[in-house]
């Protein structure tokens, strides 16, 4: 996976325009950043480039502005945050154009400029060659440190590095890639995966590819109900993707053939509606008027037992609607148990990372990935668009 990829500490950055694609897609409310983790995580790479005498140009997307300027999705608060907490950072009101060019050309060695949200231009998502060519003017050296965005072949992740001769991955990217490389190549067993979240359809690819790598998959969240229903259990009003029954049945058959275990919930916390009163259902079948919103206690105990001899555990996706106090217990119980395990533990995906943090056990998890979608795609395909573009 890493063959052919250079890292930032192998590059000569002195007096060069160093374009760093970062992931500053942080939550902002009324101009105030709610969680700056992603910015803080990128500081190692940015500070390194600055200290090496680079003229640093930072670029990121934020949210989904649909190709138009939207003041609520401006990166300006990020430039202010870095200036307040770390060092002065200039801000450009756009990411291309004459004014930005002037700001880039005025940069002195060791200075930092943050460009405005790349996705204010539809050409970013469309991976337009002309847009990549414009960004390329700001780029003697290209660095990708945006692991969480690297599964998307957008202009700043794919088209741009393909046009650059000097390119490398940053330190955050390096940490992530080395960890997943280790995970994919590690021969230690047993290796278990815990998958949760809303939709099977978004995780079907990763389930299929994980079946070749792991010894057991424990399933929670709404995903579990599609599996249970396909196997003939009653799931009431739970979120079920009927169109996936055939696929799910094939997965279960393949698991049987391989002697690989897929473990499903045996009891549930339910309600008549999403925000309704919680009701415990002590068996696999859910009455017609209820929907499953969390795994029950028997399932938590079962999952703990199933995980107890693990050497590696990978977790992505909550076990229930963990945003609600009534349906978060299963997710937090699993997070707490993971922290006690004598196994290499890897957590990815915004919701599971949030659960691990809220449970106060992040220090006991070996690797907390900054990219949910990216880490799943990496496990599924063994590479990412952003990695491949660095090799060309
Ligand atoms: P994902 O982005 O696929 O990891 O899904 C995360 C979302 O799944 C969270 O917002 C959860 O509230 C939601 N979720 C988890 N379990 C359930 C469930 N049983 N029913 C409905 N939504 C769920």
Poorly predicted runs: none
Structural class: alpha/beta
How many strand elements?
A: 17
First-last Cα distance: 13 Å
Which of globular, elongated, flat, extended, rod-shaped describes the shape?
A: elongated
Oligomeric category: single chain
Helix share of residues?
25-40%
- Total separate domains: 2
Mean pLDDT: 94
The CATH architecture of the largest domain can be named as 3-Layer(aba) Sandwich
How large is the radius of gyration? Answer: 23 Å
Ligand types: adenosine monophosphate
- The CATH homology group name of the largest domain: Phosphoglycerate kinase, N-terminal domain
User: What is the CATH topology assignment of the largest domain?
Assistant: Rossmann fold
Strand percentage lies at 15-25%
The order of strands across the largest sheet is 5-6-4-1-7-8
Number of helices: 15
